[in-house]
Write a structure and sequence with these properties.
9 helices; alpha/beta; TIM Barrel
Length: 265
């Protein structure tokens, strides 16, 4: 049993790949020292499923509720009330996953920006932080989010993969920065390995984004390509190497930061 006490702030536990062995996944996470996990809501149905899972495992799980930019085109006025109801639940700690994704463009830029603004307004109304997604949309994203953040209780740029200049902009906006197994990828994680050195320790968070982004430097290689929260310590260790700080210091800071941002009682 690990002596770590980590918080995985981004886990897609409602993904159907976890349906058959969710309890085992959580047991392996606990054995690895991942004691608390935040399940990401990507649309209304998955936000409901995330809440149900959080209620089944109140000691270790909480959830978010929101609409990912991929699904922005499907966000209807009738969904507003459903999101409000979900966000009123004590197990739901944040609004999102919301943001802009100009890489996939599964929804138009207009629909994405409309959905983002709606959810930022909900965050102000409900008084909960935002769980944010951005890919290939940095300037538009920073400009829109920057309009609302002074009235929002906090937020995290989840799964950050960008540059030093981009991370500095997010820090200027007082956002937390979430780091995933992308940092363990020697092929495409080089800019992130430099950028994380510019995140103040009190703004740093760690996450798996499971079942995606399994750390490539795991040894021995796991039999499945599905990522799990048990692999969060690999992100922690690579982050410690990149920042030239101790594993224990980053573990303590990221856990304290998660508790503070999400008001995780």
């Amino acid at each position: 049993m690990s002596t770590l006490d980590l918080v995985d702030i981004g886990l897609n536990l409602s993904h159907d790949s976890f349906d058959h062995d969710c309890d085992a996944v959580l047991a392996r996470a606990a054995a690895a020292g991942v004691t608390r996990m935040l399940i990401t809501g990507s649309d209304v149905p998955h936000s409901r499923k995330a809440l149900q899972l959080a209620r089944l495992h109140p000691q270790s799980l909480r959830s978010t509720a929101g609409v990912h930019p991929h699904h922005a085109k499907d966000l209807q006025r009738s969904d507003h009330a459903a999101l409000r109801e979900l966000l009123a639940q004590p197990e739901v700690l944040a609004v999102g996953e919301c943001g802009l994704d100009y890489f996939r463009n599964f929804s138009t830029h207009e629909d994405q920006e409309r959905a983002l603004r709606l959810q930022l307004e909900l965050a102000i109304e409900i008084g909960k932080p935002v769980f944010l997604h951005e890919r290939d949309a940095h300037d538009a994203f920073a400009n829109i989010v920057g309009e609302y953040l002074p009235r929002i209780v906090g937020g995290v740029a989840h799964c950050f993969t960008g540059t030093v200049a981009q991370v500095q902009r997010y820090v200027e906006l007082d956002l937390y920065v979430g780091v995933t197994g992308w940092i363990c990828d020697e092929r495409r994680g080089q800019s992130l390995r430099e950028a994380v050195r510019h995140v103040p320790l009190e703004r740093l968070l760690i996450e798996t984004d499971a079942p995606y982004l399994i750390p490539r430097d795991l040894k021995p290689k796991p039999p499945s390509h599905r990522n799990e929260p048990q692999y969060l310590p690999a992100v922690l260790k690579r982050l410690a190497v990149c920042r030239e700080e101790s594993v224990d210091a980053i573990a303590a800071a990221t856990t304290a930061n998660a508790v503070r941002l999400f008001r995780w009682a």
